[in-house]
Amino acid sequence: MSAQRFKWHPDARAFFTDLAFIPEKRTAQASIAAQPVSLALQGLADTLGSDTGFCLSDFANLDLSTLSSSQFATLTGGTSGQPKVIARTQESWIKSFHANAKLFKYSAKDSIAVLGSLSHSLALYGVLEGLHLGHDVHALSELSALQQSEHLLRHHCSILYATPTQLRLLPSSARLPDIRLILCGGGTLSDAVRHHVNTICPDADLLVFYGAAESSFITLSDHTTPFGSVGRAYPDVEIEIRDPQPDGTGTIWVRSPYLFDGYLRGNSPTTMENGGWITVGERGVLDENGNLFLRGRVSRMVKIADQSVFPDELETQFANIAGMPTCAVIPRPDVLRGHHLIAVMEGAENTALRDRLFDYCKAENLIVPRQVVFLASLPLLPSGKPDLPQIETLIGALE
């Protein structure tokens, strides 16, 4: 049987303004520009269902010569460096489209909206899912947060793919009663943002998924998930913790139908494959009910006084402190201790917030940051994640 390919279902319509986009069928494109959205949608209309492997991105002159007709390429988030270009089969996403349709009971009435740029895999996934399954899709990256909210309400959008940052920016004064499902990924969802979403989308199931560009979905969490966990395995995903320490923490390995084929540009020393299993170098622990708890990525781990510390684990914990803004934890070299930590918060200087962070760390027996720095706004990547290299540069300039 031939490999499955994406298609633009005849019932699917695409919107980036109030009017449905009317594509013209032209020659398939291997390299599709992500911006403006009209060109991205036209490129998809030209290419979906063809024998052309493709990549939709902000990068020009990508070498796509090794892509087969049944593959496509996407970019990693690039949180800690240049985004990598990865290849995967179109079928690897199509299988999860059908898994979602079954799991979340998609119907002909559903329409799918995305808030981010189509160069980001989360937004591209949502659009391709809708087009393939025959739903209306709304690509809203060119609108302000207020305009996005108004569009979602006006068009009765029911399913939303978004990052925590994108959800946080939606105006609190609006109500979006037609949203029934929010699939959130690409960062830590704080209690404050969760409360904000529950207020503006009172009838929505808010589900947070954990995964990577290389693995796609790994886990899903909901309101029943234990505190601190990223949830249980997504359908047809197997999770193993290998080489565990005495506390159960080990390397997370995954096997599923959704894995990537390899890197087209760049590589990762922490990504390994073994007999159909893959790891991207993240550490975690599984409880007896299959709930996964993350420690962090090996590539960000540092030693402080001979203790292994994961800055991303601290970022996740800090996000659940009441009133805590977006926060990044940056390690800095330390002659005596190996490293020390700087917590970088978004917003104006706030002594009370700094003290609350210090008190939380002491109460939870966590490594206490040596310093808290406030920035008016944290630099962000197109994916909505903090731009760690840029933040490190800003912190270095302040030292």
UniProtKB/TrEMBL annotation:
Among its keywords, does the record have S-adenosyl-L-methionine?
Answer: no
Q: Gene3D superfamilies in the record, alphabetically?
A: 3.30.300.30, N-terminal domain of ligase-like
SUPFAM superfamilies according to UniProt = Acetyl-CoA synthetase-like
* Sample GO molecular function, one term: medium-chain fatty acid-CoA ligase activity
GO biological process assignments:
fatty acid metabolic process
Keyword Ligase recorded: yes
Query: What InterPro entries does the annotation carry?
Result: AMP-bd_C_sf, AMP-dep_synth/lig_dom, ANL_N_sf
Segments forming domain AMP-dependent synthetase/ligase: 75-264
Keywords attached to this Swiss-Prot or TrEMBL record, sorted alphabetically, are: Ligase
The family this protein is said to belong to: Belongs to the ATP-dependent AMP-binding enzyme family.
Protein name in UniProt: AMP-dependent synthetase
What is the originating organism of this protein?
Answer: Sulfitobacter donghicola DSW-25 = KCTC 12864 = JCM 14565
